[in-house]
Amino acid sequence: MTNIWKIIQLIPEYRGRIIGLILSSAVLGFGATATPYVFRSIVNTITDLFGNRVDYDAALIAVGWAVGAFAVIRLFTTLFGYWQDHQSDQLWLHSISTLRRRVFETMTGLSLDYYERNRVGDITDRFGNCITVTQWLFQLSEGTLASILQLVFGIIVLLIKAPAVGLVMLLLVPYNLISSYLAVKKTKPLRRRWNGLVGKMSGLLSEMVSQIATVRSFAGERIVQRRYDAVQDEWWDVRRTETGIEQRSAVVVNLINSLAVIGSIGWVAWGALHQAYTVGDILLVFALTQAVITTIVPITRLVNTAGDVDSASERLVELIEVPTTVTDRTDAVEVEPIRHIEFRNVGFTYPGQTRPALRNLSFTAGEGQTVALVGPSGSGKSTIIKLAMRFYDVSEGEILINGRDIRSYTQNSLRTRIGAVLQDIALFNDSIGDNISFARVGAQRDDVIEASKAAHADDFISRLPEGYDTMVGERGVRLSGGEKQRIAIARAILRDPSLIILDEATSALDTESEKLVQDGLKTLLRGRTALVIAHRLSTIASADKIIVMKDGQIAEEGDHDSLLDRQQGLYSRLHGLQTHVAKVV
Asked: At a CB cut-off of 8 Å and minimum separation 6, what does 260 contact?
C-alpha cells in the first residue's frame, strides 16, 4: 500500500474533495441502516393491530408516519446519491487528468539513458496504470466507504438488538479482511511478475507496429507471433496460478460466512419462538445480518484488487522515481548564443557499461567553424553529439561552451540554441506545418513558409493537396526520406540556432534528394558553428576541421587536403575505399 500512498501524494489538492465524498458516504451508509428500522416499525405496528394491542386509527397513523419516513429516506438517499455520483465522476476526471499531466511532465524530464534502456511499450504500459490506480481510489472513496460505514452501523445495531448475532458478525469482519490480506500477500510476487509480462507484451506490440515494414519484408509474421505467444503463455500460467490461490481462499471465506449467517438466523428464530424478539425485531436482525454479509463481500473484493492496484502503482512509482542523471545546477544560468564549443580531456562511459565510449578527447569548434566527425561505426561520433546536447554528462574532463562548463547552463536554454538534423528524422503524427513550427513556440505560418523555402522544402509541400496542413503519419511514414530531411532542415532554420548538429543528414538519399538537402544545409550552416557527422567523406570536404575517430579517441585531425596527404592515415584509406566503391558502382 506504500506505492498507492505515493500516488495519492502526487495529487494533494484533491484531498478535501475526497474527504467530502467520505462524509457523504457516511450519510448514505446511515440511510441504508435506518431503512430496516422503518420496516421493523411497520411490521410491529401491523402485528400489534392483529393482536388487538392497538386500534386501527392509531395503527394507521403509525404506519403512515413510517411510510412517510421511508419515502423521505429514499428520496434523500436518491438525490444525495446522485450528487455524490456526479461529484465522484468530476473528481475522478480532474484527478486522473492532473495525475497524467504530472507523470507526463516527469517523463519529459527523464534522462535519455532511461529511454534507451527500456521498451517503448513497457513505458506506455506503466503510464497507463494512472487509470487503474485512480479508478480503484475512487471506488474506495465512493461506494466502498459507504459499505464500510453501513457495515459499522449494522453491527452496532445488531450488538444492541441481538448481542450474540452482533458478536458473530463482528468477528466475521477481521476474519474476512485477514483472509483477503493473506491471499494478496501470497500472490503479490505473481502480480508483480504478470504486470511485468503485460509491459513486455506491450513492448513487443509496439515494436511490431513500428517495424511492420521490416517484419513484412522478411516474412517474419510467424516469428513475431511466436515471440508474443511465448510471453502470453507465460502470463497465462502466472495469472492462472494467482487466480487459483484467490479462488481457494474465497471458497473458504464464503463457506465460513454462510455458516455464520445460518447460525445467526437459527439463533434469532429460536429466540423468537421463546418470545425474546418481536416479528419486527426478527425482520430487522435478518435484514441487517444479510446486509453485513453483503457489504463485507465488496470490501474484501476491494482488498483483493488492492494487490493488483499496488502492483500497478509500483510500476508507476518506478517510472516516477527514476533518478535523473542529468540535472540543472541550482546556480545554472541561461546560455548566450553559442560562439564556440570545446571538448577538453573528455572521457565518457555509458551507464551500465564498463568499456569507455570516449577517452581523453580534446578538440575545439570555433565561432562559425564547421567541424566534421568521421570514423568507423562505434568509434564515438554519435556519443560526442549526445554529450554536446547534454543528453549525458561527461565522466571525465569537461565540455566548455563560450569558455564555461556546459553544466553551468540550464539544459533548456542550451538546447534552444542548438538545431539538430539527424539521420533518423522523427516527425510527429501531425501536419507538416506543426512539425516545422515545433522548433519555435508561437511561430506564424509565414515564418514556417520562409524557413521551408530556405530549406528547399516549400516546392514539394505546396504541391500537396493540403499543403502545410498535410498529415505526415506516424514518424512521417507518408513522406520520402528526402522530404523528411528537408522538413527537419526547415525546422532547424526556423529555430535560428547558433550551433548546428548534423548526424549523417544526407546518407541513404538518392542523388536528386541529396542535392536539395545539401542546398538546404548550406543555408542552415551559413555563419554558424557546426558539428557534422558524415559517412560519405565527399560531403565534408569543405569542413574547416575534420576529426577522425577510432575506438573512442582522435586518430587524426586536420582539413580534407592535409588528411589526404597522409597516405597511410585512416582518413586517406577511408576516402580511397569510398572512391573505389563509387567507381565500381
From this structure: 168, 169, 172, 293
